[in-house]
Amino acid sequence: MAGSADTLFMPITNGEIPLGEGQWLYLGARAIDGGFPDELRAALVCEQSMRGAYLDLQMRGMNVSPRVDNTDRFSGALILIGKHRGENETMIARASNMVSAGAPILIAGDKTSGVAPLRKRIAAFAEIDGSLAKYHATVFWLRNSVDFASHFSSAKTSPQGYQTSAGMFSAEKIDKGSALLAEHLDENIRGDIADFGAGWGYLSAELLNRFSPRTVHLYEAHCASLEAAKENLSDYDKGQISYYWHDLTREAVGKKFDWIIMNPPFHEGRKTEPQLGVQFIEVAARSLKPKGGLLMVANVTLPYEKTLQQNFSKVNQLARRDGFKLLKAQL
Question: pTM for the whole thing?
Answer without folding.
Answer: 0.94
